[in-house]
Amino acid sequence: MKNKPFFDFIQAYPDYEQTTAIDKLREADYSILDQSNTVYLDYTGGGLYADSQLAAHHNLLRRNIFGNPHSYNPTSLHATSLVESARQYVLEYFNASPDEYVCIFTQNASGALKIIGESYPFGDGCQYVLIFDNHNSVNGIREYAHAKGARVRYIPVVLPDLRVDTKVLFNALEDTNKACSNLFAFPAQSNFSGVQHPLEWIVEAQSLGWDVLLDAAAFAPTNPLDLSKWKPDFVPLSFYKMFGYPTGIGALLARKEKINAMQRSWFAGGTTSVASVRGEKHYPADAPARFEDGTIDYLNIPAVEIGLRHLRSIGYEIIHKRVSTLTGWLLDALQNLHHKNGNSLVKIYGPLSTEKRGGTVTINFFDENGKLIPKPLLEKEANKRNISIRMGFFCNPGAGEVALDISTDELASCFSRPKYEKRLSDLDFQHCIDPKATGAVRVSVGLVSNFADINAFVDFARFFVNNR
Ligand SMILES: Cc1ncc(COP(=O)(O)O)c(C=O)c1O
């Protein structure tokens, strides 16, 4: 589509023209997108899969017989060998030495985070420090930390960019009992604002005696993570976010030294070297087996290797260029939308340039009087146009509360109402804090996004200029 907006875009972001291989890929391997006139802008929610990934996986299943691993019969061994090949490839993909890291297959990133929560040796006087800008599955670890007597400390993100004041962070990290197990958690990329937090924090925190949990779920789909350069202790991932298929598989990449020191509060099939009933004793296997409960998803795990090879064949350089040019244009275009009285249509939460940010853009729409345009109206119009975007807080309440200026006092006054002592639905919450508690609108660009997708979204946005 070589029209005026496209030429303006190319003038502003000439690097996009170096990414035409992605247009060919989209045509060949993701043709359903254009055939169905789908404008998919929810890549932070989930990536899309290529036809070729499905074909390769289905061929593999059709041409082989796989049995449950954990045995030495031929079909079992066959399944084990493909699972182990995928496991090895995951490490290789992230440049993680098998001497240093293990890959534990989980159901998703949340499953990986739950392993850390359950098994991390928090104790009295130890700390769990995390930044406001985290997914709820990272926030949820605080419940384990509290239960084991550790102190939980949050470091705020600051407007307008929703980044952390590094001085505040390091004041907190310097205040530590080195005799303790202390965990610091942050996302490499925010699923709320797209901010990419500094990976340099990893080694700096470790040098102060912290174990580091780097949530790479939103970062890994469009950015290379080199674990020979950056060495966090724990890295949770969801593979469907990277390449769409299969869902239901994630991983915890963990430093061997740390993970093998972690004890579980139960055992299950496959997690022990020996378990005895009469002797009432069990011996945990080493990681990864210690943390993989029961039968792993042995038919789908080989599709993880197929997906990673697919991503590698495309290469992060081109993916990154495409995402960053489209994100830049989206940010510019949204900032240029004004009502007739000069008021802005859109407020963007997070950085306004492409520097140190990914392709996740979170916004709200306001009418000419500065009143929030209700989400149901936006949703209805977006759905009419077959545009997939996401609304709410995206399981990241910390960044959301700062972005939307929902104060601690407001929250305390809502949560302390007697009727909300035990239960609070999302609708109740909206009544309590309305209208801020409806959250925001998230647009996210990914692997095979193109200019037409962004243009369709900007057209959708323009529909709301002086429209109420
Ligand atoms: C940054 C981040 N961490 C963790 C998760 C949790 O991933 P999952 O829902 O696949 O467990 C998500 C999902 O959106 C995410 O964006």
Helix content: 25-40%
CA-to-CA gap between the ends? 31 Å
**How would you classify the helix and strand content by structural class?**
alpha/beta
Low-confidence stretches: none
Provide an overview of this structure:
By secondary structure, the protein is of the alpha/beta class. Helix content is 39%, strand content 15%. It has a 4-stranded parallel beta sheet. Strands 13-14-17-16 form a 4-stranded antiparallel beta sheet, with helices on one face. A hairpin with a 4-residue loop joins strand 11 and strand 12. The relative contact order is 0.16. Bound molecules: pyridoxal-5'-phosphate. The site of pyridoxal-5'-phosphate (PLP) has 13 residues, from helix 6.
Question: What does this entry show, briefly?
Answer:
The chain is 39% helix and 15% strand.
Write the layout of secondary structure elements.
Layout: H1 4-12, H2 20-29, H3 32-35, E1 39-40, H4 51-63, H5 74-93, E2 101-106, H6 109-119, E3 127-131, H7 136-139, H8 141-147, E4 151-155, E5 157-158, E6 163-164, H9 166-174, E7 183-187, H10 200-207, E8 211-215, E9 234-238, H11 239-243, E10 250-255, H12 256-259, E11 272-276, E12 281-284, H13 301-314, H14 316-335, E13 346-349, E14 360-365, H15 375-384, E15 387-388, E16 390-392, H16 397-403, H17 408-415, H18 426-433, E17 440-444, H19 451-462
Parallel strand pairs: 1-15, 3-4, 3-7, 7-8
Antiparallel strand pairs: 2-10, 5-6, 9-10, 11-12, 13-14, 14-17, 16-17
The protein binds pyridoxal-5'-phosphate (PLP).
